[in-house]
Amino acid sequence: MQKALVTGANGFAGSHLVRLLLERGWKVLGVTNDLSLDTGLVPGAGEFALKELDIGDRQGLLSLLAEFRPESVFHLAAVTQLELDRGALEELYRVNVLGTQNLLLSILEAKLEPVVLVTGSSASYGSSQGVGGQALTEECLPAPETPYGASKLAQEVLADTLGRGAGLGVVRTRAFNHTGPGESRRMACSAFASQVAECELEGKDAVRVGNLDSCRDYCDVRDVVRAYLLAATSGEPGELYNVCSGTAVSMRSILELLVSMSKTKIRIETDPGRFRPGDVSYQRGDGSKIERALGWRPEIPLERTLSDLLDYWRGRLEAERLEHEGRSTERRKRE
């Protein structure tokens, strides 16, 4: 039985990856800095354990690695906040860059030789407008437009440098936008879907949104974690692989598709307060390298992804409503 360590294991992509690994017969040890985070997707049974540990905890990581001795390490732990204040930026780099450094150095100190998958982001590229709106290949010069994108680029360069210098088998991916069940409502597609589900549940008639003119390259998260597994098991150390659909879709078309799936009539209202600084206007990836080298291509159509995302929010909001009603009933009984 192959053993995998997954950082960020109860996050959005992490929980889907854990499920995939368990389905394939792996033994998985998940690491998280927040056990309270629950996407409802991490399985509670099987060869899986979840441990609370900060990615910056050197001694904790060393002890965990020495005991578990993973053959593969999937590094998904990351901070995604976009705020520009000092505290947020310090945490961004502490986790994304220094946390990655701590993980890799701890692997070396434990004298292990796992394959290490470092999951980067298309935010490292910035907008495709810089190359005439063409699809971004792995050879394109990165030009991040947000602190998050800059932190992920720094993480990626650090991992590659340490990997080559110390003989670690580091494989890197740059995933473009991905969505699906379990995604936080802080992200655009999930924010749309949760509002549509809320309109159905509470009888509201409008969703409030930010910039709908930007175009992004979207994949289903379940396709993305399948690419992660392929990259870790069949990818070449030192290589970088885009994970993308190769198609750019507008946020307006995504929202309109979600609204069309609704059981009620819904209006779309633009809220300037929801526009985000540094928002990439157009981005499209070129996935020919990963398809050629590993045989990966996205399989789940966007319509199914969005339908599953909307159903996820319908179920989650209904469960939250019932839980709230149950607490209210219990409180009235006590009174």
Biggest sheet, open or closed, and with what strands and sense?
A: 7 strands, parallel
**How much of the residues is beta strand, in percent?**
15-25%
Q: Give the overall silhouette.
A: globular
Order of helices and strands: EHEEHEHEHEEHEEHEEHEHH
Uncertain spans: none
User: How many domains make up the coordinates?
Assistant: 2
Output the CATH homologous superfamily of the largest domain: NAD(P)-binding Rossmann-like Domain
**Architecture of the largest domain in CATH?**
3-Layer(aba) Sandwich
Please state the CA-atom Rg, rounded to the nearest Å: 20 Å
Give me the CATH fold name of the largest domain: Rossmann fold
Gap between N and C termini? 55 Å
SSE class: alpha/beta
**If strands are numbered along the chain, what order do they take across the biggest sheet?**
3-2-1-4-5-6-10
List its salient traits:
single chain; 335 residues; alpha/beta; Rossmann fold; UDP-galactose 4-epimerase, domain 1; 2 domains; seven-stranded parallel beta sheet; three-stranded mixed beta sheet; 9 helices; 12 strands; globular
